[in-house]
Amino acid sequence: MPLDEYRRKRDPDRTPEPVPAEDPALTGPGSAFVIQQHHARSLHWDLRLERDGVLASWAVPKGLPPDQQTLRLAVRTEDHPMEYLEFSGEIPAGEYGAGQMTIWDRGHYETLKWNDAEVQFVLHGERTHGRYILLRKGKGPNQWLLRRGDPPERTDWRPLPRELSPMLAAPGELPPDDDQRRYEVRFGGTRVLVRVDGGRVELLEPDGAPAANRHPELAGLGRALGSTTALLDGEIDGNPPGLWITDLLHLDGRDCLDLPYRERRELAEGLPLTGQHWRLVPSYPGGGAAVLAAAAEQGLPSVVAKRADSRYLPGHRGEEWIEIRTGAEAAEPPPAPARRPSSGKRGVTSVPVAGRQVRLANPDKVLYPLVSLRKRDVMDYYLAVAEVMLPHLAGRPVTLRRWPDGVDAPSFFEKNVSRHVPSWVRTVRLATPGSAAGSEFIDYPLLDDAAGLAWVANLAALELHVPQWTVQDGSDPPERTDPDLLVFDLDPGEGCTIVDCARIAERVAAVLAEDDLPAYPRTSGGKGMQLYTPVRVERPEQTSEYARAVADRLAGEDPGKVIAVMAKQRRRGRVFIDWSQNNPVKTTVASYSLRGRHQPTVATPLTWDEVHACRRPTDLVFTAPDLPDRLAAHGDLLAPLLTDHHPLP
């Protein structure tokens, strides 16, 4: 019976929950829903949807996902009676689900899909509006995933950031503009950023790494904030001990960095930031000399004078914040927790690039062990080629391929950067119906300047991949233009090398010449090479159709050396002309991009003389150290791709 499991777990004489004696007579879809915030053994939210006369229920440990990219675990629990729509109260200790339960939201919903593996619905609540999707995870009946199916309602909504360098104070004396300052004492602790999401607290060190000591005593801060998401700045393990909160950087989807300090402070004061183990640092308007004297008397190490109108500038150190030493030594803080031995790779710095301060974490981390190429070297390379690389990236959504632990470790592709992209990196939200990730929209980065290249280098995004089309400037919503590049990707099968690709490239170029089309060669930075032609088309499919016709022709003329189908088992001893790279959903590695191989090879533009002269695979291998001299000698060999567009037959 529908409520047998519910009744079995509850004693009506001991719990205030409704425990009906009879099962409901109603069947079929319903429309009511409730979300209850449940302070049980661990904080979670109970989502309940009316169905067949009962409330189908899921426990969601971190609450509803705020965006389409966030997946949340949801555990299917027993059906609840309809009376639970109105229930709130304290379930006694010792009873099932003991703890405080409150109604977080309620209203009506629409069912879009409901079966044993997937539930799609639209909530119309007092706090919540939007489409959500529950997907059963694996073979078990109770493990589900919950995601949002449409964008957040607020157009200014931003995801809670993870990678953000703290703003720093410049050492100095009491400032003359005393009345424009707010003074905060410091307790000699360790600087941390505090990420609160779904009632859970995560401490991050200044370089973005999780803090060695998780401080379980701060779990109460997560429970106090509940569904509120926040990123806080502060210090911990000082004297007196505890978490001392100094600033608010993000609040419920709102980026607070550009707010003046006085407004950030007001928002922080409206939050429950006072507890046994955490507290908001007092902030004193003016009177710096008195604050400094009081801090010295208490043995505190310093006072920070913040301009009341100062924005929060990650990684920046300037006169907006001044740290004045008291001359007193703080009492010895508790010993730091034992840490794993350092490999010398940790650390964070800020690099000035194109008028911006770009974060560089773990600058000496080796990403290419074979040649000891470090992350700072990767950033130096991308800054060295920025002038020629950026025009080929302009307006093209970039897919990153990242190797956070170096090329000898696994990599992953990243398209959606909404979670950690700096505010100064331009993004474009594009529809991606049917994507493997289940997202209908993705926020791609657009790399406009050298600072953007430095940002991706810090992410260990060694490879940058782009489509053969751009995003139309000024369009709202953003629109993809028709392809402006035709590409032939020459991939050597087993037994072939780039030498064989060079010979086929010559033949492809000859076919293009029949239609008065130029071809510009480039290595892939891997085993093969590409030919590019700048084109104008009337239809998006035109480049794929033309490229396929050329590939089919050459495969028909010389089937022993050329193949135009993707089946790997048929490629042995042949060069595959991959015409499908012109499909609008596909990308190719960007020109001048590094490759994630044992050597830091580069997708390098070539001269036709080099292609004709190629007799050994090593003739067309170029690595990051080769590029500066090569650019000095040749400039950008692919510059014609930017302006010289030809009509495609």
From TrEMBL:
Q: Where is this region: Disordered?
A: 1-28, 327-349
For this UniProt entry, which segments traverse the membrane? none
DNA ligase D polymerase domain spans which residues? 375-637
- Coiled coil start-end: none
Segments forming domain DNA ligase D 3'-phosphoesterase: 36-136
* Protein name from the UniProt record: Bifunctional non-homologous end joining protein LigD
User: Which SUPFAM superfamilies does the record associate with it?
Assistant: DNA ligase/mRNA capping enzyme, catalytic domain
- Where is the sequence biased in composition, kind Basic and acidic residues? 1-16
